[in-house]
């Protein structure tokens, strides 16, 4: 199916299939679900941030990784970069409508994982005990 096709899509004949090796949705999924991508999208859900504010919010991310992550998310249409011609220059990052929709779903997963961490920690402990520890 071409990008300019007018065929209506149903759930059974989507134009993209993340399970197919060459599908471009795989790259976007990697950008969204990677550690820095998901944390960046989650952080931007609440507010727009300047680069260094965002770097402080996403504790542990290097300047280089945050820059690469923001570029990938901007290229995918999830993040908007606004450069203001001030002295010194000011650059703000915020989610696009698509980015907000993705971040909303990611935050649901983040909150689920956070709320179930006692179970995860118990499972890890049990696993380590039966496997001789780590």
From TrEMBL:
- The answer to whether the entry has keyword NAD is no
Task: State the source organism's domain of life.
Answer: Bacteria
DNA-binding as UniProt keyword = yes
Q: Where is the HTH hxlR-type domain?
A: 23-121
Extract the PANTHER family matched here: HTH-TYPE TRANSCRIPTIONAL REGULATOR YODB, TRANSCRIPTIONAL REGULATOR, MARR FAMILY
* Molecular function as annotated in GO: DNA binding
Arranged from A to Z, the UniProt key words for this protein are: DNA-binding, Transcription, Transcription regulation
The cross-references to SUPFAM superfamilies, in alphabetical order and at most eight, read: Winged helix' DNA-binding domain
Q: Which organism is it from?
A: Streptomyces purpureus
Q: List the protein's name.
A: HxlR family transcriptional regulator
Under the heading Gene3D superfamilies, the entry gives: Winged helix-like DNA-binding domain superfamily/Winged helix DNA-binding domain
């Amino acid at each position: 199916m071409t990008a300019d096709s007018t065929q209506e899509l149903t759930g059974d004949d989507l134009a993209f299939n993340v399970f197919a090796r060459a599908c471009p949705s795989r790259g976007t999924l990697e950008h969204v679900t990677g550690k820095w991508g998901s944390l960046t999208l989650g952080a931007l859900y609440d507010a727009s941030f300047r680069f260094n504010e965002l770097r402080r919010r996403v504790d542990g991310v290097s300047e280089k990784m945050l820059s690469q992550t923001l570029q990938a998310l901007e290229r995918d249409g999830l993040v908007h970069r606004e450069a203001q011609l001030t002295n010194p220059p000011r650059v703000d990052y915020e989610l696009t409508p698509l980015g907000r929709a993705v971040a909303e779903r990611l935050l649901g997963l983040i909150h689920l994982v956070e709320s179930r961490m006692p179970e995860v920690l118990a499972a890890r402990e049990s696993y380590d005990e039966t496997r001789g520890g780590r």
